Amino acid sequence: MLPRPLTNALYGLYATHVLHMADRHGVFAHLAAGPATAAETAAALGLDPDTLERLLLVLEAFELVERDDRNRYGLPTELAPYLDRGGDRHIGAMSAHMVNGAAAQLGRLDAYLTRGKAGVDADLPAPFDVIYATPESTREFLDAMWQIGFDVSAELVRLADLGGVRHLVDVGGASGAFCVSALRAHPGLAATVYDLPQVGPYLAERTEEYGLAGRLEFAPGDFFRAAELPEADCLAFGYILSDWTDDTCRELLAKAHRACADGGRVLVMERLFDEGRRGPLATSVMNLSMHVETEGRHRTAGEYADLLSEAGFGDCRVLRSSQDKHLVVGYKTRP
């Protein structure tokens, strides 16, 4: 038998796909209501019983479901909030993106290793031209960003201490996960999501869902083509700088410095490498994903603090959440 790390690495391809299939076909949602056998679940969902049983056995082997002595499957208590569609931590959209988006592009790694990314990607469309190519791909991406951002945003809002902030601009804020959390926590706050025009309809859905009309606005724009960013006393970049090179990050943070009111701040919210870049695992994996899907990479807290300092922000602070997304804050001093 192979050592466990090799077993997990070799067969991990199946884990991601069966995770996605179980979510897509409602298996986890069915089991969230109570334990059921493979046959009972297949009958309830109209699925092929043989295929479903094989899928469940893989999920059990990866400890993603559990089985009792009556051969009934259920969700482990600690995993249920992530697998049940009704929870804020549900990862279904992220697993769909991993299978339909990221995995579909991993084939380029072979060419990257032999020819380098720049040469391979020279004739390809820009990353977000692909992501926002169709309404279906746009929604899949924005749903994934909401799922990995909304639950942790409540904690990030507390860490950011936005009590004195009047206007928050979330640069590349997608469908508004951070803004929604900030507005719910601070009734006197106004917020604007600044993102590509394609995002507007999806933000409107969240604005209506959370009753934030008049407080959550959308400003369509391209932060590369625009000479300046919208002005505010707090600007946020959540999972944005990791999409781009250091030079591009310097350009964006320089624009943020000009747009930021004196005494204001910039929030950088990202996965962070440990200072020795030995993990965490999710950051290491997504760092490779950034290489394939975008032009960026993940960085250490120190690297983000250096980028903020180069842009003119001072008193940089690192505030870590209990999840994968952390906060690096830079302040614009008064003249």
Could you explain the architecture of this structure?
The protein has 335 residues and is of the alpha/beta class. The protein has 2 domains: 4-87, Arc Repressor Mutant, subunit A, CATH 1.10.10.10; 95-331, Vaccinia Virus protein VP39 (Rossmann fold, 3-Layer(aba) Sandwich), CATH 3.40.50.150. The chain is 49% helix and 16% strand. It has helices at residues 4-24, 27-32, 38-45, 49-61, 80-83, 92-105, 109-115, 117-121, 127-131, 135-160, 177-185, 200-209, 246-259, 281-293, 301-310, and strands at 66-67, 73-74, 167-171, 190-195, 216-220, 232-238, 260-270, 272-273, 299-300, 314-319, 326-331. α12 (200-209) links the parallel β4 (190-195) and β5. The longest helix has 26 residues, at 135-160. The radius of gyration is 21 Å and the shape is globular. It starts with a helix and ends with a strand.
Using the alpha-carbon principal axes, give the shape. Answer: globular
Strand element count: 11
Strand order within the widest beta sheet? 5-4-3-6-7-11-10
* Largest sheet geometry: 7 strands, mixed
SS element count, helices = 15
Helix content: 40-55%
Distance between the termini: 66 Å
Spell out the helices and strands N to C.
HHHHEEHHHHHHEHEHEEHEEHEHEE
CATH architecture assignment name of the largest domain:
3-Layer(aba) Sandwich
